[in-house]
Amino acid sequence: MITVHAQYQSRFREITRVEKESFEIAEPTMVALAAAITGKYGPAMTALLMDEDSKSLNSRGTLYLNSKGTRMYLEDGLADGETVFFMVGIAGG
Amino acid sequence: MESRLLRVNLTTGDCKVETVPHAMFERWIGGSGINNWIMWEHFLTHDVNCDPRGPDNIFVFGVGPLAATGSGSGIKGRITFKSPCYGIFGDSAAGGKFPYMVRFAGFDYIAITGRAPKPVYLHLCDGDVEIRDASHLWGKNSAEAHNTLVQELGDFPSLAHTLTIGQAGENQVGIASVVSDASRIHARGGGGCVLGSKNLKAIAVQGSGGVRVHNPRGLLNWSKDFRQKIDQNEAIYGFKRRGTLGAVEMYQHIGSHFWRNNQGNMFRGDEVRSDNWVKKFHKYSEVCSADCYIACDGRYKLDGTESEKAKKYVGESFRRPEYLTTASAAGALDLRDWAEVAHWGKVTNDYGIDNQDLSTSISFIMELEQHGLLSARQKAELFDRDNQSLEWGCMEDVEELMKDMVFQRNRFGEFFHNGPYYGALRYSEFRGENFMKYATYGKGGASFTEEMRPFPTWMNNMAVASRGADHLKGIGLIEKFQRRDLSMKYFGRLEAADLSTPVLKGACTAVVENQVALLNSYGVCLFHWMLDPGGYTPEDYYGRAFAEVTGIDRTPEELMRDGERICNLEKAFNSRLGLRREHDTICERWMFEPCPEGMYPGKVAADMFETVLDEYYEWRGWDQRSGLQTEARLKSLGMDDVAEVLAADGALVRA
Amino acid sequence: MSRTPQKELVTGAVWHPPGAEIPDVEEKLYALSNQCTDCNICEVACSLVHSPDGMVNPLLARLKVDHSPQVGRKAVHPFGFAADICHHCGNPPPCAEVCPTDAFYYDPKTNVAVIAQDKCIQCMECVPGCPFDVIFVAPDGELLKCDLCGGEPACVDACATRPEMNNAGKQYVRAPVLFHTDTAGYRAVLQDKPERKDEVGMMQAMLEAGTVSSAA
Questions:
Q1: Which end of chain C lies in a sparser environment, N or C, as judged by fewer CB atoms within 10 Å?
Q2: Where in chain B is the domain with CATH 1.10.599.10?
Q3: Least Cα separation, residue C135 to chain B (angstroms)
Q4: Tell me, what's the ipTM?
Q5: What is the pTM for the complete model shown?
């Protein structure tokens, strides 16, 4: 079991209604964290976070960064105490 | 596919309508592409080195073939001209209902030359054109002029839609803009100055005509499929509500804002760095530009309770500030109250002036003040008044300097009216001291209020964009969003998504410029694609809509080449003006001063700049040393005629 | 401008003699005011679908986006827009009743009244005759009335969804601002849940009841 932290912005935060929280996950993976988050917040979160067709994290207009500023993918692992930032954004305009 | 071009010579008063033949759409797609060609041809018979404020400059308005057909991908009208502030290729887009109505009035392209002897406006109505007296409009801001015209012109055969200039354009301020239906703005490059120099206050259109589509069922099916894609993209719901303000929180996190003249890259102030606009100010439903399934615009009206400073602006109403309105106000100028950001957005629109170059001209001076480089006497010389306060985050100071610029009241207005680069140069000469290291700018001297030092594609965009430093034409989404999937899709490798390497960054600019050129030529908004750049592409998915509308059927490879051709014509125009590799550059701050904060501190553009630029030229097939186009590449794009003109100007590399 | 009935959209004109029992309209359009964004795509799609030669022209649409919804209309706010749509009134509708030349017939698929252009003499009696001002006059004089596109309205196809338009996250289904709905189901929801008075609430109730036929 490891503890990881999630921080949410804009549309993610509209769904979760909290800015940050922690999860205890059995597997140290993004897969486990994503499952914990969608499990907790239901279909609205699943529609935003997951891409049904490709079975990966939804990449349209989203940005998931670890504390070093690297984008996270489902195949990535997580360290104990790591934070992942869930953002929806656009560039320019 | 055929359409109509209206040619207006304001000197003689002649108005002539020409057919734009199908072959033009085959070569140049429409919109941007055809605008560029109209301007290119004009400068084959007029001096390309003419004064952009003189009668020989041309102002082209165009709307692409997908606009107003129900495609659902929004509408952008495009203006194209020789830029009076940067002296290079100039163009700018804006949405709204004006380009929609131009089509129903019976025109797709308007080309204006000459200079009217006194203030006039153009009235287009169901194929008829009149040049009318505008003396009652001169002196009004862009919204007042619009409202007056709408009232005067009534609602038959339709309501009127307008392009207007404000006082900035009338006073030929270099960075003056053209405003569309009082609420949207062709901001960059000084289109408003060109119209002001021609004594043209407005263009008003009314119409009851139609627009023909080649294959209606095909287009309706495409539209339905497109709508479903939009409706199923969950992230777009956030965009519908926030527009580009969605960038605020994300940029705050990664350190991508432009704070106090780019001395920092994060907003300060709790209000502006969060989503609070949406929570506290946004009370009314989203509205739409035109023809768009997203509808990301919004309206507000201040009642005074929203924030501390809102009490000063009770009753003020406008469209919601977008990201760059916010970046220029809360970022460059450190205004920390949303009511002030909104007010800034409204007054820059009303005066009709570019918020990017205006804010960075003001922030340049404010930084000099911050460093104690302006004595009381020196400020009096600059502003022609004593005791001008220059405090960060002070709206009163900002408004005074804005008026100095719009009304050309003093040396500040005069020196900086072509943007921060030329302003800093002139001020340095005036003072006998070199202040260039405090000026932020890219190609042409144009500025842009985002932190880009950690983003090599963005720094490359600032150096190479045809209309001067610009993020949109080659927008670095793959790198900023670290999209490994898109890097693989376009290049078969991962490096385009890796911020730590210069590899594939110049390539990204080259590929995306071709794609964006297509969207600008189709006449649609960029944002639908930007919200899912892998999901539906300009060269493939949109290409099918282009075929349904025009009957011109192209493969994705052919359309990418069409996009490349359009980009090469813009480049050719600049080459004729003498631009070479040394002009594809950026300011000292971006090149050498380390990024001070945010997620990627310590970054400087210089680490990767030249490597990325080399790669960009390589992908473009241009000469590395001079940056000039090669005969081989132009011939491969079917641009032999352009190559000959360049050769005659000594601007072609015969390779 | 073509004056023949729109055979591509509507199959088989059905004329009912005066006094005959005409079946009721089973599905009709519904448009939420103040969620409309003024994109005008409904007008564009309507005109394109009805055009024999591929012309887009909002002035030829059988619905209109109203930029100044009247005082008294529900939920008007300062920047509201609303789509003015045919209400497909109970049969025979007022427009058909005032017609002096019996130029209205009924589409058997939908039972909505449609104008037969070759019988219409363009007297324009139906224009003030319509209590909702949704019979429009084209620039060339043709009278334009919504025919529900034979049961699959193009305007509904063209209307995009809004962030508010979901059933509170339950099935997570979204609906556009313009949609067509089973009238019996709509009436049932109105009776059943009078507290869902605001329009978005009504739409959500209909989504929950499964009576909205055009969810995304």
A1: N
A2: 456-648
A3: 17
A4: 0.95
A5: 0.95
